[in-house]
């Protein structure tokens, strides 16, 4: 029976690491949200780029709010289906950690809760029966979908995390277990997932790092205890300032205290950072958490012995269709290693690749024990902190070195004293000193096993090593330019031979050869018996790709220490490798003419190379390596410039509500005399948008009253979330706007009214930008913070009920008509309610008018639509962005207060706020964009200024031209416009 269970348990663990299919594996993972790249055909591309970094896993959230926008109707087809996500992960060889919430945070609107959950009486994420019941349908459906994709069913899912950072509850503390409130909620969520068939281990991400929900801690405890950490924080405006107050120390001690029987797990570790409205742009966040940050902070994590490690985000993607929370804009690039448009030029992509690959070939790390905080006894200077990891059973030790002040940008020299199989040594033994130049960290090793050859020590970081044919081994070491490094090898391995150009010093000391060198831009190679050691500058290592050869099922493409690998130098990207006979088949990408060089392979009889199935002409390099060149002749692509007259725009007014003829009888009356909202209400009937089923995009209110001749002022208090704006009209007279700021989520304003006619009927029209709901800490109900008109006063009317309010948001509210694009894609604007943003709108008889040269006159909203053809050649990946230019408004020279929504084939892929920014370029993925056929592009242009607005410039711009081995994504189903009979 026990044996049977052991066989069944494909995922087990001990205090050191996860064990998958009986084999220890470093779970080196990155976060990637399928819903932020709604082109399923591109998921494989992202997985391959993550796999090429040496990662073994990906962690992903699912967003309840996007799947169950209509209560009771969980939509899981089209772009919402995870089928291709699972199959792409398997194909790339990536294990998955599923995080279905139901609360996910993730900078999503309402933290991933559906809008209707805001109306629940009970506190969200509590054990209130209405909240628990609300989650059941979603959890059972998503639970089953994830269960079907578990490793036990042949899929990639190896772990599941219920809820998210569920570590605090006001008034409760984690020591109060076992029966407290939040423990019951956690247990309930876990039970629903187990009922749905989840058998793989559960994990928790305790952001308090207090042992909450650790195994054995009581009700709701998970299998694998993990923590979250964001030490760089989010101040992307000061990207060179590393905060010190969250620098991780003592994590191993905490872990041993809280969860001694599970591997040290970091479920989220900051791999980028976030920006918001009026901010500085995502590229600044990429600087805040750059390659140096990855070197210092990630290596610090390894010094604690982390073996399940997930970095958040590895690929951020897009907050398309209003899916984001109010604190972020359309781009969710996150300054991550892989850019929003799937490019890998950020240096930290390469830095992570060096680190992750090291762990793939270093099984000794997986059983090492962290020796705790920096210890001066190993190192010659207090300027350097060294934290050891001791080998267990295996003799390898790891010494993680950094500046004692981890933020230090200066240089320090040091030597290291360590005990090895040849006794205690102070290194370097020969000449020079080790150096820590600027923000850097090193992993020095002793008695490291290179496939049966003992590397007595190396001060240079190890990138990778493989077994070549026969008993050959190739090892790659790297360091920073001009650094001195040293390694030692037993004399029994052979006599070192230096390649031409290698200036290393070789000295025999006792029973070892000591090789000391200075890192140069030029490659240096030493051969010692069967072992060839490449001594590289880090930047050359960046261009080298260790690739796993496919294996037999069930390992197939997943990583395994027993797998054969090939090491190739190439340019932009290598995705996969296979060998048949003398032929080496590679797939990958190039962005210029690129030389491929076979550094090492398990076969010495390779004679030919194909790249993306094309045979290449091969030769031998001076050092005897097989080489070939991939040519690069970029195709000529013609892209539309929407600013010019060659582009025909059709125009329709999108605020007919301002016309005296407009009939709002089909609108919803704001008639609720009560609200469940914890903030209560200050008006006779609730005016909160969520009370009427509107949760996204924009909102329009209509307030009808009859004049008593005493009105002089109209006061409004409106909440739309950070970055929001609004405009107010009385009949067709513009009263004014709030243009928004990067700080306010609420803005009150008093408008002076023109003199009104006694006993005449009037109507206020208020258009509000809805920027998405907030996220929350458990127990705060912050998500429910209202959106919309929260209070008003009309002078001369002491009874607020004199004004009768109506509301609309997106057509249908929670019963949204466009299931393909989900519940959040549309807002309240007339053109959206009519569905004109969808492909092929009914433009017959519409005015020709350009958003760039004509724009809109006065305060109001115009809808502009055009179409164009693309014809991209096969085999080329050309990421495209729609780029807005300039701050031109009707009044030349002023900073135009205008807002634009960009719809591409019906998908809202941009909210551009001219007066706030910072985002001006909006990437739209292939698949949403039809790269070989017709595309429809529409803009809503909302001028918040009385003098109107024109878009300063608008063009489709290629961000890169890449000859690519990606599989071309199929077109995402994008239903066209059909008449909406019930639209008003
Ligand atoms: C974490 C949270 C993630 C994400 C991150 C910040 O605390 O679990 O979902 O919001 O912060 O990007």
From TrEMBL:
Residues 365-544 form the Beta-galactosidase domain. Keywords: Glycoprotein, Glycosidase, Hydrolase, Signal. It catalyses: Hydrolysis of terminal non-reducing beta-D-galactose residues in beta-D-galactosides. Residues 1-17 form the signal peptide. Pfam families: BetaGal_ABD2 (PF13364), BetaGal_dom2 (PF10435), BetaGal_dom3 (PF13363), Glyco_hydro_35 (PF01301). SMART domains: BetaGal_dom2. Its EC number is 3.2.1.23. GO terms for molecular function: beta-galactosidase activity. Belongs to the glycosyl hydrolase 35 family. This is Beta-galactosidase.
């Amino acid at each position: 029976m026990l044996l049977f269970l052991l066989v069944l348990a494909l995922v087990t663990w001990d205090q050191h690491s996860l064990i998958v299919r009986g084999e220890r594996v470093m779970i080196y993972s990155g976060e990637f949200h399928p819903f932020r790249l709604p082109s399923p055909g591109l998921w494989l591309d992202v997985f391959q780029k993550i796999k090429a970094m040496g990662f073994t896993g990906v962690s992903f959230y699912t967003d309840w709010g996007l799947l169950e926008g209509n209560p009771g109707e969980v939509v899981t087809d089209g772009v919402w289906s995870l089928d291709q996500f699972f199959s792409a992960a398997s194909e790339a060889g990536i294990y998955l950690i599923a995080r279905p919430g139901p609360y996910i945070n993730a900078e999503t609107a309402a933290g991933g809760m559906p809008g209707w959950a805001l109306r629940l009486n009970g506190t969200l994420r509590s054990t209130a029966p209405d909240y628990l019941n609300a989650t059941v349908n979603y959890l059972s459906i998503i639970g089953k979908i994830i269960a079907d994709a578990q490793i036990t069913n042949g899929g990639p899912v190896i772990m599941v995390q219920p809820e998210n950072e569920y570590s605090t509850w006001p008034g409760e503390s984690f020591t109060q277990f076992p029966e407290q409130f939040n423990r019951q909620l956690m247990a309930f969520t876990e039970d629903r997932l187990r009922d749905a068939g989840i058998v793989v281990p559960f994990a928790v991400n305790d952001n308090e790092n207090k042992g909450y929900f650790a195994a054995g801690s009581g009700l709701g405890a998970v299998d694998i205890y993990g923590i979250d950490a964001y030490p760089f924080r989010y101040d992307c405006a000061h990207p060179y300032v590393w905060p010190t107050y969250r620098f991780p120390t003592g994590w191993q001690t905490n872990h041993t205290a809280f969860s001694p029987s599970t591997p040290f797990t970091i479920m989220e570790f900051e791999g980028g950072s976030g920006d918001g409205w009026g901010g500085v742009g995502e590229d600044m966040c990429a600087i805040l958490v750059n390659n140096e940050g990855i070197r210092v902070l990630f290596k610090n994590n390894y010094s604690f012995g982390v073996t399940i490690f997930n970095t958040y985000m590895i690929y951020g993607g897009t907050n398309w269709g209003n899916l984001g929370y109010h604190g972020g804009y359309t781009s969710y690039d996150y300054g991550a290693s892989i850019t929003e448009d799937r490019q890998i030029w950020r240096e930290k992509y390469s830095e992570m690749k060096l680190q992750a690959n090291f762990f793939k070939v270093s099984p000794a790390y997986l059983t090492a024990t962290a020796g705790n905080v920096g210890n001066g006894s190993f190192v010659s200077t207090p300027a350097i902190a060294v934290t050891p990891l001791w080998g267990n059973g295996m003799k390898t030790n790891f010494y993680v070195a950094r500046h004692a002040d981890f933020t230090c940008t200066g240089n320090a020299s040091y030597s290291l004293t360590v005990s090895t199989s040849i006794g205690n040594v102070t290194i370097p033994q020969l000449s020079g000193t080790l150096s820590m130049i600027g923000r850097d960290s090193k992993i020095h090793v002793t008695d490291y096993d290179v496939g049966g050859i003992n590397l007595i020590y190396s001060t240079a970081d190890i990138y990778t090593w493989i077994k070549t044919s026969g008993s050959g081994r190739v090892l790659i070491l790297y360091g920073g330019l001009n650094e001195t490094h040293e390694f030692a090898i037993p004399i029994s391995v052979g006599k070192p031979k230096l390649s031409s150009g290698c200036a290393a010093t070789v000295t025999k000391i006792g029973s070892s050869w000591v090789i000391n060198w200075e890192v140069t831009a030029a490659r240096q190679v030493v051969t010692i018996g069967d072992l060839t050691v490449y001594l590289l500058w880090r930047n050359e290592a960046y261009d080298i790709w260790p690739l796993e050869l496919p294996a037999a099922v069930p390992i197939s493409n997943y990583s395994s220490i027993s797998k054969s690998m090939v090491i190739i130098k190439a340019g932009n990207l290598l995705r996969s490798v296979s060998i048949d006979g003398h032929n080496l088949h590679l797939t990958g990408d190039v962005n210029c003419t690129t030389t491929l060089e076979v550094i090492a392979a398990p076969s010495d009889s390779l004679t030919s190379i194909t790249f993306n199935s094309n045979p290449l002409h091969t030769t031998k390099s001076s050092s005897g390596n097989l080489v070939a060149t991939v040519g690069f002749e970029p195709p000529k692509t013609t892209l539309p410039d929407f600013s010019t007259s060659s582009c025909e725009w059709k125009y329709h007014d999108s605020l007919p509500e301002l016309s005296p003829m407009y009939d709002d009888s089909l609108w919803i009356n704001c008639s609720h005399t009560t609200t469940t909202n914890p903030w209560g209400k200050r008006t006779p009937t609730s005016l909160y948008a969520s009370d009427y089923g509107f949760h996204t995009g924009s909102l329009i209110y209509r307030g009808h009253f009859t004049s008593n001749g005493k009105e002089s002022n109209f006061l409004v208090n409106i909440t739309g979330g950070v970055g929001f704006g609004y405009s107010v009209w009385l009949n067709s007279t513009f009263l004014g706007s709030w243009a928004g700021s990067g700080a306010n989520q609420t803005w009150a304003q008093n408008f002076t009214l023109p003199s009104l006619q006694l006993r005449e009927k009037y109507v206020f029209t208020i258009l509000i930008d809805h920027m998405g709901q907030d996220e929350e800490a458990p127990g705060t109900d912050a998500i429910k913070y209202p959106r919309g008109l929260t209070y008003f006063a009309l002078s001369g009317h002491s009874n607020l009920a004199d004004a009768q309010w109506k509301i609309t948001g997106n057509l249908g509210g929670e019963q949204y008509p466009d299931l393909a694009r989900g519940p959040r894609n549309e807002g309240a604007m007339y053109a959206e309610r009519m569905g004109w943003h969808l492909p092929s709108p009914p433009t017959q008889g519409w005015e020709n008018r350009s958003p760039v040269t004509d724009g809109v006159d006065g305060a109001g909203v115009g809808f502009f639509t055009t179409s164009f053809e693309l014809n991209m050649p096969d085999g080329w990946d050309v990421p495209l962005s729609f780029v807005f230019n300039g701050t031109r408004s009707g009044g030349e020279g002023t900073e135009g207060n205008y807002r634009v929504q960009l719809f591409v084939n019906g998908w809202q892929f941009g909210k551009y706020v001219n007066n706030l920014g910072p985002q001006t370029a909006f990437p739209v993925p292939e698949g949403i964009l039809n790269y070989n056929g017709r595309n429809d592009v529409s803009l809503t242009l909302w001028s918040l200024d009385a003098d109107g607005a024109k878009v300063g410039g608008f063009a489709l711009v290629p961000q890169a031209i890449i000859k690519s081995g990606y599989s071309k994504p199929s077109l995402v189903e994008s239903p066209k416009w059909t008449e909406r009979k019930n639209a008003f």
